[in-house]
Amino acid sequence: MTHPPEALPGRRLDAHHHLWSAARVERGDYHWMPTDGPLRGDHLPEHLAPALEATGVGGTIVVQAAPSVEETRFLLELAHATDFVLGVTGWVALDRPEDAELLAELAADEYLRAVRPMIHDLPDPNWVTRPQVHANLERLHELGLRFEALTRTEHLPAVDAALAAVPELPAVINHLSKPTYRPDADDQWRQWMLRLAERPHTWCKFSGMLTEVGPGWSPAQFQPYADFLFETFGADRVMFGSDWPVSSHLLAYTDVVALTDQLVTEAGLSAPAEVDAFWAHTAERFYGVRAPATATPTRSHQPLSS
């Protein structure tokens, strides 16, 4: 399916990408990264900028990829120096009493919009329900920050309980909470995502699908999940994220946008308000930012088969 240029939204915001330097990789900041390959190089604003221009993405949210406050400060420095970075999702441990003061210090920087502990790497699936984490989630809300949940299915019951205890805290589930993309194995995922969708202050990022499936992916694997997500959360609580550069070992940024465009169109998003919500307005409301209008890409996006 192709889409004429006039059908594309006037604003686009990428709500989930990363930035890092090769030097930080080599010193061991990113424990999850392969020991070799293109991800280990520099991935900085100047490397992303051409793809943003080509796809009409006018603003972004850069998300932490290392569990360190030092990386968060690095991302905040990049945000101050980069026109297209509108906000930063940083990292704070959240399970220590002193984190309340650290949150207040970091929140003084206007670019810090959210905090993301790397829950799916922690050994305790109920970590997010610990009393000290709860206290710091309340502190997040008091400071006007948002909470990002990097999870798999087994973490969703605890996330649901934690958000029930701080019901006004804006929260976003990253990467659809990483289902298996095998419908017969994702019943529990659907059950808990339905529960979370009932919470009006809980949102979801449409991102990270390629990495979970890997080589051999097809749009048909993702389409039922796109349909489910928009049926449950709606376009006003689902936002686009490229997951660049992690996604780039499988698909170029421009083709990630093309694939996303294909999936959300097939899911039934066609009204201009819905299209604008998904591509920009939902993330703008969640993060409290505004993506600038950009020139509409001249290249129509072609459907992808593999």
UniProtKB/TrEMBL annotation:
Name of the protein described by the UniProt record: L-fuconolactonase
A molecular function GO annotation: hydrolase activity
Organism lineage: Bacteria, Bacillati, Actinomycetota, Actinomycetes, Pseudonocardiales
Domain Amidohydrolase-related: 14-288
Similarity comment: family membership: Belongs to the metallo-dependent hydrolases superfamily.
InterPro entries: Amidohydro-rel, Metal_Hydrolase, Metallo-dep_Lactonases
Recorded superkingdom: Bacteria
